[in-house]
Every structure is written in C-alpha cells, then in structure tokens.
Target: Succinyldiaminopimelate aminotransferase apoenzyme
Amino acid sequence: MSRSVRRLREFSETVFATMTARATEFDAVNLGQGFPDSDGPPRMLEIACEEIRSGNNQYGPGRGLPVLREAVAAQRSRDHGIGYDPDTEVLITVGATEAISATVLGLVEPGSEVIVLEPYYDAYAAAIALAGARRVAVPLAADGATWTVDVDAVRAAITSDTAMLIINSPHNPTGSVFGRDVLTELAAVCVEHDLLVLSDEVYENLIFDATHTAVASLPGMWERTVTVSSAAKSWNVTGWKTGWALAPAPLLDAVVTAKQFMSYVGATPFQPAVAHALNHEQEWLRGMVAELATGRDILVAGLREAGLQVHDTSGTYFVVADIGESGDGLQFCLDLPERIGVAAIPVQVFCDDPGPWRSKVRFAFGKQHGTLHRGVERLRLLDSRQG
Ligand code: PMP
Ligand code: GLN
Model:
C-alpha cells in the first residue's frame, strides 16, 4: 500500500502508464498514450547532438537559455499577435507539465478553488491537489458531434473562493477546438470575476479545419493569463520535456518561484535545438500537420468500419469514439490490448462525474500511417467479436 500523503491519495499510477504497460505486455498497437512514433525535423535533432558534443552540458540560466526565450516570444508574436518580453515574461520549463504545476503552486492559495473543464487532462487535478486547492469540474457541453464550453455553467460554478480557471484548447481528450466566440464569452466572465487563467495550448499547432484562438489575445486576458505550451507535440519530441510559460512579469515571477525548486532548470542542450525549430521549421510543421490530418482520416474510417460511433475532432491527435450505451470504456480499454492488440484510453478517467462519459474512448492518431493501418486492421476484429 502506498504511504502517500492524504492530498495525493486519489492519484494512483496514471492511466497513460497503465495502458502503455498493457500495450507492451500484449504487443498491441498503442493508440492510447499520445506520443508520435516518428522523429522531429532532422536539423533540430542534429543541433541537440552538436550542443552535447560541443560541451553545452551544464546548468543554464534559471529562466532558460535566451535563444529559446527569444524564439518562444517571437513565435507568440508571429502566430498569435501577442507580445511578451523574453527577459521577464517567458520561462522555459521541464515540459508543459512542470509549467502547469508551477503555475498552480505559485499562484493559487491552499483552500481556494480552481475550475477545470471536464473531461480534463490529469495533470491539472494533481497540480491542484499538490497546491492544497480544491478542484471544481464543469462539464463540457455537447455541440453536434463535438463539445464546447458551457459558459453559463462556468459562471454558476464561480464562488468567492474561485482563484483560477484552466482552459485547454485544442482540447485533450476530445479534440474539440473552442471557437473565438465562446472563448470571448468565457473571457468576459473571467474579467468580471477577476479570475486568473491557465491556458494550456500544447496542441496550438495540431489543428485541422479550425483556427486556434490564443486565450491571452482576447480582451482583458493578457494581464490575467499564464499561457503554457511545449515542444513535445509540435516537434515530435515528447521525451525532451521542454516546455514554457508566458505571462506578464508579476504572474510569471510567481511561477518562477515555484519552478526553481521543482527542477531548478531543464535540460540545456535541447533548448537551442527547439529554438531552431520555432524559428526555421515552419515548412516541416505544415507537412507534419498535413500527414496528421490524413492519419486522422485513416483512423476515423477504421473506427467507423469497426462499428463504433466517432465524434468530430479538429485539433490535437486524439479522436473520441463511443462504444455503445451499455459499454464501460475503462473495462473496454483494460481488455482491448489482449483482446485485439490495440490500446486506447477511457475518457471517464478524466472526469469527476464519469457517468456521461462512460462509453467514450480516446484513440490517438499521431502515428505513422503504417502503424494506423495496422491498428485499423486489428480494430476490424472488434466488429466480428462484438455481441
Ligand atoms: N497538457 C496537455 C493537454 C497534454 O496533453 C500534455 C501531454 N503532452 C501536456 C500538457 C504535457 O506536456 P509535456 O509533455 O510538454 O509536459
Ligand atoms: N499527453 C499525453 C496524452 O494525453 C500523455 C502524457 C503522459 O503520459 N503524461 O496521452
């Protein structure tokens, strides 16, 4: 039995670790945990090797190497029209995960409330618990074959203890991309109640038939928002754990205070490599996103052929399928690797009220097309073995 402190007792092994272990055990096609099975831009990889060989292997500056902070600020300005000072308003972190924890730990008092939109990425719940704060989950609302933010429900959940709202668009696990209109309405609520906002935009570049709205670009939001992003998803380097937080100096200073005692700094040699990608690899990124869109079509077609109802996805590399009203997604996903050699993630584990999400299962399509075709072939077995 784990001896963990009370505030962490609800957290056991993450669902990603469990399902990836099951995938490995049964040699399954892993469409569960979101990581790509191909590499990022070749020149970016070479730069990381060159940096190691040339001796850039010691602690870097506390806020990250200037070359990467400048590249992150330039990308925000170029892609989203938002200005940040690379010296005082950009922090390099150990992945977006550390940026999330440091933001909550640095800015949210114990006992206050943080609103998350359900289903929510698991790291938010853990960060809130670590900070001794209270999580208040507001479900997303169905919107045709996808989901959107229920702004009235968010408004109704706000109390005098609410300190922060966490927004994630493009959204993991649903693949929903929240439109500018709904985010503008949500922003007005945050301004009215003077809430801080953590905007997790790690999937900002993985967008199909939709437009990404950077939350900090909306009226009244720049001054109250910590934006988090990462090299992981845009540049196929989930293992480099290189992310960042952007915020006005008074907010970012609080994030820095927490971060410096979590890891002090991230890995030095990856930072110039990621800076290169942000500055020079737009064409590679466009190609990768085009491949991803085709990958999505392969997987969606395969899931439909397997007899599942499939929701729309316009961002991330995830798509949600429905296994039928009587199905339990958790059991389905635990069995799937052994049953047909495919791994997936149950959506209900991202929910405080799993009920409405019980039959929803997330599949990842950020994989080589050969991997997806192999997964789709195995999914066909589902149809013949159902019932
Ligand atoms: N936020 C979301 C919504 C994610 O899906 C992930 C996983 N990539 C992260 C944050 C963590 O990113 P990183 O691997 O850079 O820590
Ligand atoms: N973000 C990835 C996902 O949602 C997994 C990251 C992790 O394992 N923590 O699948």
